[in-house]
Design a protein that fits this description.
mainly alpha; 12 helices; globular; binds fe (ii) ion; 317 residues
């Protein structure tokens, strides 16, 4: 679908419906297929887990870190999809008595996100049954969605567009390329990516539509909301990386030295900042859409908000 973004908007919505029908999958029949996770393999690939930041860890501990991060990765997607589904329902409602092709494409989008949430709940149950007790996913999907839905539609659609674009990058650049990752793990994100490819196109269309509706002061307020949303995401990452560090410390089977514990905590926060914030800023499509909407001053404000997070995530320990 990548090349389709040059087509007129109306046919793009129709193409997304066609692609959505073509790639449609079921959780048990196509993705899980009666399989279990192979805990002798990694989950999140090294590039996304930023495994080079965990020099203290043995090979087995690195594999466990990849599995803990992978469990959180699945839960993070399940959580953000609650916000995405709720926001898409609002946006879809605006088209209910308008172009029925647009309406159908967005209904399918929301339906797919409901299925993805179910998939990630299933994965969490499968991982909980096989991993040591004590893991906790801290953020509440509904509390997060309440914060997200309180922000300007322009900002929320921008954030959603960014998430769905980096989902594609993560699969194509890292998950598909790691020969040591669990087969079921890779399949989950292959099938997920197949539907996200259409979502990313629809996000862009709806974001551009909303952008065209705004005057400059409304857009400026949207920029502030987008910066606030990134800060809220970072707050979630700080809480969850601390919880995952505690889980590792309790279950890794040895007492870490203070310097090793510090490396674990820093490494997890840097990895999560990389996954959910910084990798999205590397997406050229997203940055070109955003810079096309904003003034230089607004763009500088966004970059200023992101810079400390990018510098931390890219620092080497
Ligand atoms: Fe999804
Ligand atoms: Fe999606």
């Amino acid at each position: 679908m990548d090349t389709a973004v040059q087509l007129p908007a109306s046919s793009l919505y129709a193409k997304c419906i066609d692609a959505s029908k073509r790639v449609r999958w079921e959780i048990d029949r196509d993705v899980i297929r009666g399989r279990k996770f192979d805990f002798s393999k990694k989950f999140l690939p090294d590039a996304l887990a930023r495994i080079q930041n965990f020099a203290f860890a043995t090979p087995a501990e690195k594999r466990f870190i990849s599995q803990v991060q992978g469990r959180t990765y699945a839960n993070m997607f399940g959580m953000v999809e609650r916000s995405i589904g709720a926001k898409l329902l609002d946006v879809t409602r605006l088209h209910a008595l308008g172009d029925q092709v647009v309406f159908e494409s967005l209904v399918r989008f929301t339906d797919e996100e409901l299925k993805h949430q179910e998939l990630f709940r299933r994965l969490e149950a499968m991982m909980a049954a096989e991993m040591p007790a004590g893991y906790g996913f801290v953020p509440s999907p509904n509390e997060v969605a309440t914060v997200v839905l309180s922000k300007a539609t322009w900002a929320v659609l921008g954030l959603i567009c960014n998430i769905e674009l980096f989902t594609l990058d993560h699969y194509r650049q890292s998950i598909d390329k790691d020969p040591e990752a669990s087969d079921l793990w890779k399949d989950v994100f292959l099938f997920h990516m197949k539907e996200e490819a259409q979502h990313a196109i629809l996000d862009e269309l709806e974001w551009q539509r909303e952008n065209a509706r705004l005057d400059s002061s409304q857009r400026d307020a949207g920029v502030n909301d987008l910066i606030a949303l990134v800060a809220a995401v970072d707050g979630i990452l700080q809480v969850q990386s601390a919880a995952d560090a505690e889980y590792f410390l309790k279950t890794c089977g040895r007492a870490l030295k203070p310097a090793e514990e510090q490396q674990l905590r820093t490494g997890l926060l840097r990895a999560y900042r990389w996954q959910y914030i910084v990798s999205g800023t590397k997406n050229e499509r997203f940055m070109s859409i955003l810079s096309g909407m904003l003034t230089q001053e607004q763009m500088q404000r966004v970059v200023k908000g992101l810079t400390p997070i990018i510098q931390d995530a890219e620092a080497v320990q």
